[in-house]
Specification:
alpha/beta, TIM Barrel, nine-stranded mixed sheet, 9 helices, binds S-adenosylmethionine, binds iron/sulfur cluster
């Protein structure tokens, strides 16, 4: 489907929860996060119906994200529902990885094709400082589990402060090379300040070729991460929400004062 600037929108990113088992410093405050209330969280049937309509309009690439998607109860069932939907040629997930030892095999069997796993550093102390909660060794186990399950390719999402030449990023690049993984460097962004850059090794952040729209866990279709615009599928109905999201997708991102990475999904 084409938006009003003739960009072909074929990529839907679906946030299935705003909950997370980490509190990464650049993503969430340590405490006092206002969560979406349970009644506002879309059911799997609502998510499925929204993805299905998108697919009928030309979406063929779907990424499940969060919050941490693997903390959503029954997530494997949702993957199975989407895995059986004709027309999706790329079904992926972005995860912090720590629940992959539990879920990787089931996810693969349900139809998940590949994963992006977030890894900013290989220094266990720094990892704890960044995530406030996480253990580096658990993510490394998650990467192994993804490999063993045959989720492929595995990409590492590495958030960088300034450059892919900073020591933590170089170490992650080296680790990726040794383990036959791909790596994408994501400049740390600030939605509120409108501070964003193109993802190195990926396609995000380049407005001219942006092919994506987003669905939040409470049903808002967001045509742009760096904009407050959203169209809620429960309020407007799925078809109209899509029509508006496409026709109002901004030419370039600007600022987002109402959303955060953890509730839009990055
Ligand atoms: N919990 C999962 C994870 O961390 O992979 C999925 C959701 S997370 C919001 C998606 C991606 O957004 C992660 O790779 C994370 O590193 C990135 N992210 C979060 N906050 C960011 C920020 N301020 N700037 C750049 N990337 C960010
Ligand atoms: Fe959670 Fe992912 Fe945000 Fe870290 S980046 S707090 S793992 S949602």
């Amino acid at each position: 489907m084409l938006d009003c600037f003739n960009r072909n929108i074929n990529y839907l990113r679906v946030s299935v929860t705003d909950r997370c088992n980490f509190r990464c410093t650049y993503c969430m405050p340590a405490e006092g996060v206002t969560m979406i209330s349970h009644k506002d969280i879309l059911s799997f049937d609502e998510i499925f119906a929204t993805v299905k309509h998108g697919v009928s309009q030309g979406i063929n690439k779907v990424r499940i994200t969060g919050g941490e998607p693997l903390v959503r109860k029954g997530i494997v069932n949702l993957i199975e529902m989407l895995g059986n939907l004709d027309g999706i040629t790329d079904l992926s997930m972005t995860t912090n990885g720590i629940l992959l030892p539990k879920y990787a095999k089931q996810l693969k069997a349900a139809g998940l094709m590949r994963v992006n796993i977030s890894l900013d550093t290989l220094d266990a102390d720094k990892f704890k400082t960044i995530t406030r909660i996480g253990e580096l060794s658990d993510v490394l186990k998650g990467i192994e589990a993804a490999k063993e399950a045959g989720l492929s390719p595995i990409k590492l999402n590495c958030v960088i402060k300034k450059s892919h030449n900073e020591p933590d990023a170089l170490a992650v690049a080296e680790f990726a090379k040794k383990n036959n993984l791909q790596v994408r460097f994501i400049h740390e962004m600030n939605l509120e300040k409108g501070d964003f850059k193109v993802v190195e090794g990926g396609s995000g952040g380049d407005c001219k070729i942006c092919n994506r729209i987003r669905l939040t866990a409470n049903g808002s279709l967001k045509p742009c991460l760096f904009s407050d615009i959203d169209y809620n599928i429960r309020e407007l109905g799925i078809e109209q929400a899509y029509e508006l999201a496409l026709s109002k997708k901004p030419k370039t991102g600007h600022k987002n004062k109402t959303g955060n990475f953890y509730n839009i999904g990055g």
